[in-house]
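Postdoc handover notes: sequence design on the structure in folder B. Input C-alpha coordinates:
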Protein backbone atom coordinates (compact mmCIF):
# COMPACT_ATOMS: atom_id res chain seq x y z
CA UNK A 1 0.00 0.00 0.00
CA UNK A 2 1.07 3.55 -0.73
CA UNK A 3 0.45 5.68 2.34
CA UNK A 4 0.62 9.45 2.87
CA UNK A 5 0.86 10.84 6.41
CA UNK A 6 -0.08 14.52 6.71
CA UNK A 7 1.78 16.61 9.31
CA UNK A 8 5.34 17.23 10.41
CA UNK A 9 5.67 16.90 14.18
CA UNK A 10 6.67 14.28 16.74
CA UNK A 11 3.26 12.64 16.54
CA UNK A 12 3.60 12.20 12.78
CA UNK A 13 7.15 10.86 13.19
CA UNK A 14 5.84 8.24 15.64
CA UNK A 15 3.00 7.32 13.25
CA UNK A 16 5.44 7.04 10.30
CA UNK A 17 7.96 5.03 12.36
CA UNK A 18 5.25 2.51 13.29
CA UNK A 19 3.70 2.35 9.80
CA UNK A 20 7.16 1.72 8.32
CA UNK A 21 7.20 -1.61 10.21
CA UNK A 22 4.10 -2.88 8.40
CA UNK A 23 4.37 -5.73 5.87
CA UNK A 24 1.45 -4.19 4.00
CA UNK A 25 3.36 -0.97 3.28
CA UNK A 26 5.04 -0.52 -0.11
CA UNK A 27 5.79 3.21 0.04
CA UNK A 28 5.45 5.84 2.76
CA UNK A 29 5.24 9.58 2.19
CA UNK A 30 4.85 12.41 4.68
CA UNK A 31 3.75 15.99 3.92
CA UNK A 32 5.60 18.05 4.91
CA UNK A 33 7.52 15.76 7.34
CA UNK A 34 10.76 16.83 9.06
CA UNK A 35 14.42 15.83 9.29
CA UNK A 36 13.67 12.75 11.42
CA UNK A 37 10.67 11.60 9.41
CA UNK A 38 12.97 11.61 6.36
CA UNK A 39 14.61 8.46 7.85
CA UNK A 40 11.43 6.42 7.42
CA UNK A 41 9.35 8.22 4.79
CA UNK A 42 9.83 10.32 1.68
CA UNK A 43 9.01 13.91 2.63
CA UNK A 44 6.76 15.84 0.27
CA UNK A 45 7.07 19.66 0.33
CA UNK A 46 3.36 20.44 0.71
CA UNK A 47 2.00 22.13 3.84
CA UNK A 48 -0.44 20.13 5.99
CA UNK A 49 -2.87 23.04 5.70
CA UNK A 50 -2.70 23.30 1.91
CA UNK A 51 -5.78 21.16 1.34
CA UNK A 52 -5.85 21.67 -2.45
CA UNK A 53 -2.15 20.82 -2.65
CA UNK A 54 -2.48 17.65 -0.55
CA UNK A 55 -5.54 16.44 -2.48
CA UNK A 56 -3.88 17.02 -5.87
CA UNK A 57 -0.65 15.36 -4.77
CA UNK A 58 -2.44 12.33 -3.24
CA UNK A 59 -4.50 11.82 -6.37
CA UNK A 60 -1.54 12.20 -8.75
CA UNK A 61 0.56 9.80 -6.71
CA UNK A 62 -1.98 6.96 -6.37
CA UNK A 63 -2.18 7.10 -2.60
CA UNK A 64 -4.15 4.16 -1.15
CA UNK A 65 -4.50 5.61 2.34
CA UNK A 66 -3.97 9.07 3.81
CA UNK A 67 -3.51 9.55 7.55
CA UNK A 68 -4.10 13.00 9.03
CA UNK A 69 -2.08 14.00 12.12
CA UNK A 70 -3.00 17.59 13.14
CA UNK A 71 -6.36 19.12 14.01
CA UNK A 72 -6.29 22.11 11.66
CA UNK A 73 -6.52 20.25 8.31
CA UNK A 74 -9.17 17.98 9.89
CA UNK A 75 -11.25 21.02 10.87
CA UNK A 76 -10.72 22.40 7.34
CA UNK A 77 -12.43 19.29 5.97
CA UNK A 78 -9.42 17.53 4.44
CA UNK A 79 -11.03 14.10 4.90
CA UNK A 80 -14.15 15.05 2.93
CA UNK A 81 -12.02 16.65 0.22
CA UNK A 82 -9.76 13.60 -0.09
CA UNK A 83 -12.86 11.40 -0.35
CA UNK A 84 -14.04 13.55 -3.27
CA UNK A 85 -10.85 12.71 -5.18
CA UNK A 86 -11.16 9.03 -4.25
CA UNK A 87 -8.51 8.81 -1.51
CA UNK A 88 -9.38 6.72 1.54
CA UNK A 89 -8.40 8.55 4.72
CA UNK A 90 -7.86 7.73 8.38
CA UNK A 91 -9.32 10.66 10.32
CA UNK A 92 -12.74 12.18 11.06
CA UNK A 93 -14.72 14.19 8.50
CA UNK A 94 -15.47 17.91 8.89
CA UNK A 95 -18.74 17.35 10.73
CA UNK A 96 -17.12 15.12 13.37
CA UNK A 97 -14.08 17.39 13.57
CA UNK A 98 -16.25 20.00 15.28
CA UNK A 99 -15.71 17.88 18.39
CA UNK A 100 -12.31 19.54 18.63
CA UNK A 101 -12.87 22.66 16.55
CA UNK A 102 -15.80 23.90 18.66
CA UNK A 103 -15.90 23.61 22.44
CA UNK A 104 -19.57 24.59 22.36
CA UNK A 105 -20.39 21.74 19.92
CA UNK A 106 -18.74 19.25 22.28
CA UNK A 107 -20.36 20.65 25.42
CA UNK A 108 -23.83 20.38 23.91
CA UNK A 109 -23.03 16.83 22.71
CA UNK A 110 -21.89 15.85 26.24
CA UNK A 111 -24.90 17.49 27.90
CA UNK A 112 -27.39 15.96 25.43
CA UNK A 113 -26.03 12.47 26.06
CA UNK A 114 -25.61 12.80 29.83
CA UNK A 115 -21.86 12.31 29.74
CA UNK A 116 -20.15 13.69 32.88
CA UNK A 117 -18.48 17.06 32.28
CA UNK A 118 -18.26 20.52 33.89
CA UNK A 119 -21.43 22.65 33.82
CA UNK A 120 -21.17 25.50 31.29
CA UNK A 121 -22.70 28.57 29.69
CA UNK A 122 -21.90 30.21 26.33
CA UNK A 123 -21.41 33.88 25.54
CA UNK A 124 -21.10 35.74 22.23
CA UNK A 125 -21.44 39.24 23.67
CA UNK A 126 -18.56 40.77 25.65
CA UNK A 127 -20.77 42.97 27.84
CA UNK A 128 -23.02 40.08 28.73
CA UNK A 129 -19.98 38.00 29.68
CA UNK A 130 -18.55 40.89 31.74
CA UNK A 131 -21.90 41.11 33.54
CA UNK A 132 -21.46 37.39 34.38
CA UNK A 133 -17.83 37.58 35.50
CA UNK A 134 -17.22 34.99 38.23
CA UNK A 135 -20.31 33.06 37.09
CA UNK A 136 -19.20 29.84 38.79
CA UNK A 137 -16.79 31.52 41.23
CA UNK A 138 -12.98 31.48 40.93
CA UNK A 139 -10.85 30.19 39.32
CA UNK A 140 -13.01 31.08 36.31
CA UNK A 141 -12.63 28.79 33.28
CA UNK A 142 -12.85 30.75 29.99
CA UNK A 143 -12.55 28.82 26.73
CA UNK A 144 -12.33 30.23 23.22
CA UNK A 145 -14.85 28.20 21.26
CA UNK A 146 -12.62 27.64 18.23
CA UNK A 147 -9.11 26.30 17.56
CA UNK A 148 -6.36 28.41 19.13
CA UNK A 149 -3.25 26.21 18.87
CA UNK A 150 -3.90 24.72 22.32
CA UNK A 151 -3.80 28.16 23.99
CA UNK A 152 -7.50 29.06 23.99
CA UNK A 153 -8.23 28.13 27.63
CA UNK A 154 -7.63 30.85 30.20
CA UNK A 155 -8.23 30.28 33.90
CA UNK A 156 -8.06 33.57 35.84
CA UNK A 157 -7.89 33.33 39.62
CA UNK A 158 -9.77 36.54 40.45
CA UNK A 159 -12.18 39.12 39.06
CA UNK A 160 -9.56 41.63 37.89
CA UNK A 161 -7.69 38.94 35.92
CA UNK A 162 -10.96 37.58 34.53
CA UNK A 163 -12.00 41.01 33.23
CA UNK A 164 -8.57 41.46 31.64
CA UNK A 165 -8.79 38.02 30.01
CA UNK A 166 -12.27 38.72 28.64
CA UNK A 167 -11.08 42.05 27.22
CA UNK A 168 -8.13 40.32 25.56
CA UNK A 169 -10.18 37.46 24.16
CA UNK A 170 -13.28 39.34 23.00
CA UNK A 171 -12.01 42.92 22.81
CA UNK A 172 -8.41 42.73 21.52
CA UNK A 173 -9.17 39.36 19.87
CA UNK A 174 -5.85 37.75 20.78
CA UNK A 175 -7.22 34.42 19.50
CA UNK A 176 -8.79 36.01 16.42
CA UNK A 177 -12.29 34.82 15.63
CA UNK A 178 -11.76 31.64 17.74
CA UNK A 179 -13.03 33.60 20.78
CA UNK A 180 -16.07 35.20 19.11
CA UNK A 181 -17.88 32.71 21.30
CA UNK A 182 -16.61 31.90 24.80
CA UNK A 183 -17.60 28.90 26.85
CA UNK A 184 -17.50 29.47 30.62
CA UNK A 185 -17.21 26.30 32.68
CA UNK A 186 -17.32 25.18 36.26
CA UNK A 187 -13.80 24.64 37.59
CA UNK A 188 -13.13 20.93 38.05
CA UNK A 189 -10.64 19.56 40.59
CA UNK A 190 -8.79 16.26 40.53
CA UNK A 191 -5.99 14.74 38.47
CA UNK A 192 -5.89 14.97 34.69
CA UNK A 193 -5.31 12.05 32.37
CA UNK A 194 -5.73 11.46 28.66
CA UNK A 195 -7.24 8.48 26.90
CA UNK A 196 -6.80 7.88 23.18
CA UNK A 197 -9.35 5.65 21.45
CA UNK A 198 -9.65 4.18 17.96
CA UNK A 199 -13.20 4.78 16.73
CA UNK A 200 -15.20 3.55 13.74
CA UNK A 201 -18.93 3.48 13.11
CA UNK A 202 -19.41 0.37 15.28
CA UNK A 203 -16.82 0.52 18.06
CA UNK A 204 -14.71 2.62 20.36
CA UNK A 205 -11.50 0.90 21.47
CA UNK A 206 -9.23 2.60 24.02
CA UNK A 207 -5.50 2.42 23.43
CA UNK A 208 -3.10 1.90 26.30
CA UNK A 209 -3.18 4.96 28.54
CA UNK A 210 -0.56 7.71 28.64
CA UNK A 211 0.18 10.53 31.03
CA UNK A 212 1.08 13.92 29.59
CA UNK A 213 3.04 16.69 31.35
CA UNK A 214 1.69 19.97 30.02
CA UNK A 215 3.51 22.56 32.14
CA UNK A 216 6.94 23.83 31.15
CA UNK A 217 8.73 23.47 34.51
CA UNK A 218 9.32 20.57 36.91
CA UNK A 219 6.62 19.88 39.51
CA UNK A 220 3.99 21.04 36.99
CA UNK A 221 4.92 24.69 37.39
CA UNK A 222 4.79 27.47 34.80
CA UNK A 223 2.68 28.00 31.70
CA UNK A 224 1.04 25.26 29.65
CA UNK A 225 2.84 23.86 26.62
CA UNK A 226 1.84 21.37 23.95
CA UNK A 227 3.26 18.67 26.26
CA UNK A 228 6.80 18.25 27.68
CA UNK A 229 6.80 14.46 27.92
CA UNK A 230 4.69 11.41 28.56
CA UNK A 231 4.81 7.97 30.08
CA UNK A 232 2.72 4.92 29.26
CA UNK A 233 0.80 3.18 30.70
CA UNK A 234 -0.50 5.87 33.05
CA UNK A 235 -0.29 4.88 36.71
CA UNK A 236 -3.34 7.03 37.52
CA UNK A 237 -5.84 4.54 36.14
CA UNK A 238 -7.06 1.35 37.77
CA UNK A 239 -9.71 -1.21 36.84
CA UNK A 240 -12.47 0.62 38.70
CA UNK A 241 -11.74 3.95 36.99
CA UNK A 242 -11.44 2.22 33.62
CA UNK A 243 -14.83 0.55 34.11
CA UNK A 244 -16.37 3.92 35.03
CA UNK A 245 -14.86 5.53 31.93
CA UNK A 246 -16.21 2.71 29.77
CA UNK A 247 -19.75 2.85 31.17
CA UNK A 248 -20.17 6.57 31.75
CA UNK A 249 -18.13 8.01 28.88
CA UNK A 250 -17.11 5.63 26.08
CA UNK A 251 -20.38 3.72 25.62
CA UNK A 252 -22.63 6.81 25.73
CA UNK A 253 -20.22 8.63 23.39
CA UNK A 254 -20.48 5.91 20.75
CA UNK A 255 -24.26 5.77 21.19
CA UNK A 256 -24.38 9.58 20.93
CA UNK A 257 -22.36 9.53 17.71
CA UNK A 258 -24.89 7.11 16.21
CA UNK A 259 -27.89 9.07 17.43
CA UNK A 260 -26.52 12.39 16.12
CA UNK A 261 -25.37 10.98 12.78
CA UNK A 262 -21.68 11.60 13.54
CA UNK A 263 -19.84 9.06 11.39
CA UNK A 264 -16.61 9.22 13.32
CA UNK A 265 -13.61 7.30 11.99
CA UNK A 266 -10.21 7.97 13.50
CA UNK A 267 -8.83 8.74 16.92
CA UNK A 268 -10.88 10.31 19.68
CA UNK A 269 -8.62 11.80 22.35
CA UNK A 270 -10.48 12.28 25.62
CA UNK A 271 -9.06 14.74 28.14
CA UNK A 272 -10.28 13.57 31.54
CA UNK A 273 -10.45 14.95 35.04
CA UNK A 274 -10.38 12.10 37.54
CA UNK A 275 -12.43 13.84 40.23
CA UNK A 276 -13.86 12.69 43.57
CA UNK A 277 -17.19 12.27 41.76
CA UNK A 278 -15.60 10.03 39.14
CA UNK A 279 -14.12 10.70 35.70
CA UNK A 280 -15.36 13.77 33.81
CA UNK A 281 -14.65 14.90 30.26
CA UNK A 282 -12.60 18.10 30.04
CA UNK A 283 -12.36 18.08 26.27
CA UNK A 284 -12.42 15.97 23.13
CA UNK A 285 -9.72 16.13 20.50
CA UNK A 286 -10.18 14.31 17.23
CA UNK A 287 -6.63 13.11 16.55
CA UNK A 288 -3.65 11.45 18.19
CA UNK A 289 -2.10 13.44 21.06
CA UNK A 290 1.38 14.87 20.86
CA UNK A 291 3.51 13.67 22.72
CA UNK A 292 1.15 10.91 23.97
CA UNK A 293 1.47 9.10 20.64
CA UNK A 294 5.23 8.79 20.99
CA UNK A 295 5.04 6.65 24.15
CA UNK A 296 1.81 4.84 23.19
CA UNK A 297 2.91 3.69 19.72
CA UNK A 298 6.30 2.65 21.14
CA UNK A 299 4.30 -0.02 23.00
CA UNK A 300 2.01 -1.14 20.17
CA UNK A 301 2.69 -4.73 19.08
CA UNK A 302 0.09 -4.93 16.30
CA UNK A 303 0.35 -3.58 12.76
CA UNK A 304 -0.80 0.07 12.82
CA UNK A 305 -1.60 0.08 9.11
CA UNK A 306 -3.94 -2.86 9.60
CA UNK A 307 -5.72 -0.95 12.39
CA UNK A 308 -6.04 2.20 10.25
CA UNK A 309 -7.50 0.17 7.38
CA UNK A 310 -9.92 -1.62 9.70
CA UNK A 311 -11.17 1.75 11.00
CA UNK A 312 -11.74 3.12 7.49
CA UNK A 313 -13.70 -0.06 6.66
CA UNK A 314 -15.64 -0.13 9.98
CA UNK A 315 -14.23 -3.48 11.05
CA UNK A 316 -12.28 -2.31 14.08
CA UNK A 317 -14.18 -4.78 16.29
CA UNK A 318 -12.56 -7.69 14.40
CA UNK A 319 -8.98 -6.57 15.04
CA UNK A 320 -7.16 -7.94 18.06
CA UNK A 321 -4.97 -4.99 19.08
CA UNK A 322 -1.94 -6.20 21.06
CA UNK A 323 0.29 -4.11 23.31
CA UNK A 324 3.73 -4.81 24.75
CA UNK A 325 4.14 -5.25 28.50
CA UNK A 326 7.11 -2.89 28.38
CA UNK A 327 6.62 0.59 29.78
CA UNK A 328 7.56 3.73 27.83
CA UNK A 329 8.81 7.21 28.73
CA UNK A 330 9.16 10.05 26.23
CA UNK A 331 11.09 13.18 27.20
CA UNK A 332 10.73 16.33 25.10
CA UNK A 333 13.77 18.49 24.33
CA UNK A 334 12.52 22.02 23.70
CA UNK A 335 14.06 25.28 22.46
CA UNK A 336 15.07 27.70 25.24
CA UNK A 337 12.22 30.18 25.81
CA UNK A 338 9.41 27.86 24.69
CA UNK A 339 6.38 28.19 25.12
CA UNK A 340 7.23 31.89 24.77
CA UNK A 341 9.46 33.15 21.96
CA UNK A 342 12.54 31.12 21.05
CA UNK A 343 15.24 31.02 18.40
CA UNK A 344 15.38 28.48 15.60
CA UNK A 345 18.19 27.15 13.43
CA UNK A 346 20.43 25.72 16.21
CA UNK A 347 22.62 22.77 15.18
CA UNK A 348 21.66 19.54 16.92
CA UNK A 349 24.47 17.11 17.81
CA UNK A 350 24.51 13.67 19.42
CA UNK A 351 21.58 12.23 17.45
CA UNK A 352 23.73 9.24 16.47
CA UNK A 353 24.93 8.63 20.03
CA UNK A 354 21.67 7.14 21.27
CA UNK A 355 21.18 3.45 22.13
CA UNK A 356 19.81 1.18 19.40
CA UNK A 357 16.56 0.54 21.25
CA UNK A 358 15.86 4.22 21.94
CA UNK A 359 13.91 6.24 19.38
CA UNK A 360 14.36 9.98 18.97
CA UNK A 361 11.17 11.31 17.42
CA UNK A 362 11.68 14.65 15.71
CA UNK A 363 9.07 17.35 16.36
CA UNK A 364 10.60 20.62 15.15
CA UNK A 365 13.66 19.90 13.01
CA UNK A 366 14.84 20.52 9.47
CA UNK A 367 17.95 19.92 7.40
CA UNK A 368 20.50 22.73 7.05
CA UNK A 369 22.33 23.47 3.80
CA UNK A 370 25.06 20.94 4.53
CA UNK A 371 22.72 18.19 5.70
CA UNK A 372 23.10 19.05 9.37
CA UNK A 373 19.98 18.78 11.53
CA UNK A 374 18.69 22.12 12.84
CA UNK A 375 16.02 23.10 15.34
CA UNK A 376 12.91 24.59 13.72
CA UNK A 377 10.25 24.63 16.41
CA UNK A 378 9.47 25.01 20.12
CA UNK A 379 9.33 21.32 20.84
CA UNK A 380 12.31 19.87 18.98
CA UNK A 381 12.69 16.16 19.85
CA UNK A 382 11.00 13.50 21.96
CA UNK A 383 13.48 10.91 23.25
CA UNK A 384 11.50 7.72 23.75
CA UNK A 385 12.67 4.64 25.64
CA UNK A 386 11.02 1.42 26.76
CA UNK A 387 11.89 -0.84 29.67
CA UNK A 388 10.55 -3.60 31.91
CA UNK A 389 9.51 -1.00 34.48
CA UNK A 390 8.58 2.67 34.36
CA UNK A 391 11.80 3.49 36.21
CA UNK A 392 13.96 1.54 33.76
CA UNK A 393 12.32 3.31 30.80
CA UNK A 394 12.71 6.66 32.53
CA UNK A 395 16.40 6.16 33.33
CA UNK A 396 17.10 5.11 29.73
CA UNK A 397 15.16 8.03 28.24
CA UNK A 398 17.04 10.59 30.36
CA UNK A 399 20.44 8.93 29.89
CA UNK A 400 19.98 9.22 26.11
CA UNK A 401 18.35 12.66 26.15
CA UNK A 402 21.45 14.03 27.95
CA UNK A 403 23.62 12.98 24.98
CA UNK A 404 21.76 15.23 22.55
CA UNK A 405 22.83 18.87 22.50
CA UNK A 406 21.80 22.15 20.93
CA UNK A 407 22.16 25.71 22.17
CA UNK A 408 19.45 26.55 24.67
CA UNK A 409 18.08 22.97 24.88
CA UNK A 410 15.63 22.55 27.75
CA UNK A 411 13.88 19.52 29.23
CA UNK A 412 11.92 18.72 32.35
CA UNK A 413 13.56 16.28 34.73
CA UNK A 414 10.50 14.72 36.33
CA UNK A 415 8.75 13.09 33.35
CA UNK A 416 7.49 9.69 34.50
CA UNK A 417 8.44 10.47 38.08
CA UNK A 418 5.55 12.59 39.33
CA UNK A 419 1.84 12.16 38.57
CA UNK A 420 1.81 8.45 39.39
CA UNK A 421 0.17 6.60 42.24
P1 LIG B 1 -8.41 22.10 27.20
O1 LIG B 1 -7.70 22.80 26.07
O2 LIG B 1 -9.88 22.15 27.15
O3 LIG B 1 -7.83 20.72 27.45
O4 LIG B 1 -7.96 22.88 28.52
C1 LIG B 1 -6.60 23.11 28.81
C2 LIG B 1 -6.34 22.85 30.27
O5 LIG B 1 -7.15 23.71 31.06
C3 LIG B 1 -6.74 21.45 30.70
O6 LIG B 1 -5.72 20.54 30.45
C4 LIG B 1 -6.97 21.67 32.19
O7 LIG B 1 -5.76 21.71 32.88
C5 LIG B 1 -7.57 23.05 32.24
N1 LIG B 1 -9.06 22.99 32.26
C6 LIG B 1 -9.89 22.99 31.19
N2 LIG B 1 -11.18 22.94 31.58
C7 LIG B 1 -11.18 22.91 32.93
C8 LIG B 1 -12.19 22.86 33.93
N3 LIG B 1 -13.48 22.86 33.61
N4 LIG B 1 -11.80 22.83 35.21
C9 LIG B 1 -10.49 22.86 35.54
N5 LIG B 1 -9.48 22.92 34.67
C10 LIG B 1 -9.82 22.94 33.37
N1 LIG C 1 -0.64 16.59 24.38
C1 LIG C 1 -1.87 17.26 24.23
C2 LIG C 1 -2.41 17.32 22.87
O1 LIG C 1 -1.95 16.67 21.94
O2 LIG C 1 -3.39 18.03 22.67
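Designed sequence:
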Amino acid sequence: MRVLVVGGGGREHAICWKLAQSDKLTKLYCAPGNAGIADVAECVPVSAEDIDGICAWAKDNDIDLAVIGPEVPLAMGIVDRLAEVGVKTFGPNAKCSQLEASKSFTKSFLARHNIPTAGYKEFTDKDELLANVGLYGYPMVLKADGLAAGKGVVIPENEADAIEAIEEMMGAKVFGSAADKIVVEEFLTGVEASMLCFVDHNSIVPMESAQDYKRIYDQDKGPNTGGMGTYSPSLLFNEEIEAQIRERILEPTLAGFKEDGLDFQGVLFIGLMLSDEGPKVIEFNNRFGDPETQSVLARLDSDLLEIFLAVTENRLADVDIKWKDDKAVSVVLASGGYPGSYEKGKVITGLDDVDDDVVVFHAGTKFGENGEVLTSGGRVLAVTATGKTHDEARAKAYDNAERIKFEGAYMRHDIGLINRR
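Context for whoever picks this up: Residues 251 and 301 are 25 Å apart (CA to CA). Don't rerun without checking with the PI first.
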